[in-house]
Amino acid sequence: MKSILAWFERFPEFKHNDLYVSGESYAGVYVPYVAWQIDQHNEQHHHEENKHHKINMKGFMVGNGVTNWKYDGDPAYIEMGYWHSLYDTELYDKIKAANCNYEYLDAGNTDFSDECISYLEELYALVEDVNIYDIYGTCWGLGNSPQLYSSRTSQRAVTAADYTPWLFKHTKNGEQHRLRGLPPCTFGNPIIDYLNQADVRAKLHVPTDIQYWDLCKDDIDYTVSLEASQWIYEKLYGKYRMLKFSGDTDGAVPTWGT
Asked: Which end of the chain is more exposed for a tag (fewer CB within 10 A), N or C?
């Protein structure tokens, strides 16, 4: 809250504007939490408006957002992947026959048999070249063809698991599945190159001692709360406008869960 209030102090002309908070994917956790913090601030200082600025929040919006770890992440992708024909019925039937329940996998649940973990690894091996954020879209990679835009560095993420660090962490190869640079299947080099041009940095008033800009940082660490954010929607229901929308080709946070 301190940073939000500081922003309004720095730009007081926006203090009385309507505020809507929005985001997508993992923002399905932190957008509602931001809305909750603002709501609590306003409630706490309801009678102290001269001393504490009351934020004029009207609502929030989330697209394909994490909401409840019982359904989101791996559990959703397993179902969505099958019904979108990303893997075959034989593997799907084996998962069901073994009663593999992957609920809360991405929130730290480790209560899975070796058999169920092996099926999960088999599934992700089959879909590693699929664009997890748009399963019917082009999976951009490295190379010289239009679909494989040349990368500037050799350490680039190359699988779906790299861009979703909360996924796959309980598999045998979990340590190697972490963000290492440009997310897989993304055409990010042009914007990276543009924002790091000397003249662009100068016009943006970026100090010369500030590090090179990249699309993602390799030291990102997601903090996962078991309760996620569904409870916030329930608490704030009726107080603000809330919009939750989902596209059905996102495999990272599929409609099946969201």
From this structure: N
Write the single-letter amino acid at 96.
Answer: K
Eight-class DSSP state of 237: B
Single-letter amino acid code for the residue at 223: T
Which residue type, as a one-letter code, is found at position 174? G
The series of mean pLDDT values per 10 residues for the chain, 258 residues long, is 90 93 93 96 78 86 94 90 95 96 83 91 88 85 45 36 47 43 71 91 93 73 78 96 94 87
Q: Residue 73 has which token pair?
A: 């992440």
Q: How distant is the alpha carbon of residue 104 from its chain centre?
A: 16
DSSP assignment of 184-201 equals TB---HHHHHHHTSHHHH
The answer to whether the CB of 225 falls within 8 A of the CB of 104 is: no
Nearest to 36 by CA among 230, 245, 202: 230
